[in-house]
Design brief:
This is Glutamine amidotransferase. The chain has about 220 residues and is an alpha/beta fold. The protein has 8 helices and 11 strands. Helix 1 crosses helix 8 and helix 6 runs parallel beside helix 7.
């Protein structure tokens, strides 16, 4: 009988405008749980870049929240500080999307092609790559793979957004256009990506793409 796979899920807060995209996160967790994996949810213990009122779609002035505390909402409190997670304790790793990826895990939303990646995120991605363990990147999260693994010409997708695709290719990565229900697999580097809410339009097709990503990820981990 195959041993249970331990899969890390890195969250960037709670709410698509300033944290993790909740539907993408839940679809990822559900797909992994249905396949019998041991879930290791994690988030960095840092301040969010800002807080957005999701009803108004505008910044909530004077509010501040922590990424780890907010991300804990999605996983019923069962979450670990990203600083305490290493590749040695994982078989695979997934990054759901949301603006939190581009604001909290890196600075893509602010700095574009000149973005910097949060040191703990960079450390873990590079550890996983060095150990040749598979990673999945959902929605906007492939910019992390592109920035960190562009030197190896990693192949990823964010759907068909020309500006983001151009940024990805500026780092040496290869962008592949993709429909929301589909995935792109870089078997050489063991990286899987899917557009999710970079394309939308709603939860069913997003869930279909994420489920395919999880299936491919676990196959690469076997």
């Amino acid at each position: 009988m195959a041993s249970q796979k331990r899969v890390g899920v890195v969250l960037s807060g709670c709410g698509f405008l300033d944290g993790a995209e909740i539907q993408e996160a839940v679809c990822t967790l559900l797909s992994l749980d249905r396949r019998g994996t041991a879930l290791v949810a994690a988030a960095p213990d840092i301040e969010q870049r800002h807080v957005v009122d999701h009803l108004l779609g505008a910044p909530a002035e004077g509010e501040s929240r922590r990424v780890l505390t907010e991300a804990a909402r999605i996983v019923r409190g069962k979450i670990t500080d990203l600083a305490h997670v290493s590749a040695s304790g994982l078989d695979a790793l997934v990054f759901p999307g949301g603006f939190g990826v581009a604001k909290n895990l890196c600075s893509f939303a602010i700095d574009g092609r000149k973005m910097k990646v949060l040191p703990e995120v960079e450390r873990l991605v590079r550890e996983m790559r060095a150990a040749r363990k598979p990673m999945g990147f959902v929605c906007i999260a492939p910019v992390l793979a592109a920035k960190l693994l562009g030197g190896e010409q990693v192949k990823v997708t964010i759907g068909d957004d020309a500006e983001t695709a151009a940024a990805i290719e500026s780092w040496g990565a290869r962008h592949v256009e993709c429909r929301v229900e589909e995935i792109v697999v870089d078997e050489r580097l063991k990286v899987v990506s899917t557009p999710a809410y970079m394309l939308g339009p709603w939860i069913a097709p997003v869930a279909a793409g994420i489920d395919k990503l999880v299936s491919a990820l676990l196959e690469l981990a076997s």
